[in-house]
């Protein structure tokens, strides 16, 4: 029988699927990275599961996380989004998403891709943790603090060190699968295929 990370609620099949298919897998696709950043910033102060359950609604509401389209949203679109019960109807978070889309595009232009920019904070290689129990998890790291500080300097909003660390975990910059989790070794094996 497979073992799992201690934080995972095994009674939620969609959460298990997210853990088994996405969490901790190194990600280099810019549109997907923007999706993760948008969802992490929406999560601030809420549970990740709450956001995960609204992800399909976010895809519909925010043009499938296309930063080119989102960066052009106007006040009329903000009002429309505020009326959408399928997403977190927080005006500051919605405006932050629009703002972050524009900043995301600036980084793409400067670095060639957001992935190239993002992965520099771990020198292009995932940090592999040694987690035995739920108490071993951390909510920030020196890398997430540097990454968040740089994002802030570039004008991003709702992306502090804790939110950025969660983003790093989600997109595989950090492998925080616990030592006994069946996914840890699988993710480690994937590094060779990815040239990491």
Order of helices and strands: HHHHHHHHEHHEH
Which fold does the CATH topology refer to? Endonuclease III, domain 1
| Main sheet attributes: strand count, strand direction, barrel closure | 2 strands, parallel
**CATH architecture assignment name:** Orthogonal Bundle
Q: Portion of residues in helices?
A: 55-70%
Q: Which strand order does the major sheet show?
A: 1-2
Terminal residue distance: 29 Å
CATH class wording: Mainly Alpha
Helix-and-strand structural type: mainly alpha
Question: If you average the pLDDT, what whole number results?
Answer: 95
Organism: Pseudoalteromonas denitrificans DSM 6059
Protein name: DNA-3-methyladenine glycosylase I
Keywords: Metal-binding, Zinc
Binding site for Zn(2+): 5, 19, 177, 181
Structure description:
This protein has helices at residues 13-21, 30-43, 48-52, 55-61, 67-70, 75-82, 91-111, 114-119, 142-153, 161-170, 182-194; strands at residues 127-128, 174-175. The model has no long low-confidence stretch (mean pLDDT 95). With 196 residues, it is mainly α. It contains eleven helices and two strands. Helix content is 56%, strand content 2%. It has a two-stranded parallel ribbon. It is globular. Helix 9 crosses helix 10 (161-170). 35% of the residues are buried. It has a single domain (13-194), classed as Hypothetical protein, domain 2 (Endonuclease III, domain 1, Orthogonal Bundle), CATH 1.10.340. The two termini are 29 Å apart. Zn(2+) binds at residues 5, 19, 177, 181. Keywords: Metal-binding, Zinc. One of its GO terms (molecular function) is metal ion binding. InterPro entries: Adenine_glyco, DNA-3mA_glycosylase, DNA_glycosylase. This is DNA-3-methyladenine glycosylase I.
